[in-house]
Amino acid sequence: MKHLFCLLAVALSALHFGFAQQKIEPAKKGVYYGKKIDGNSALSVAQLEAKLKSEAGYSGKVEGEVVEVCKKKGCFLTLKRANGESVMVRFTDYAYFVPQDLVGKQVVVEGRAKIKETSVDWLKHYAEDKGASKEEIARITKPRTDISIVADGVLVIN
Question: Hey, what domains does the chain have and what are their CATH numbers?
Answer without folding.
Answer: 27-156 (2.40.50)
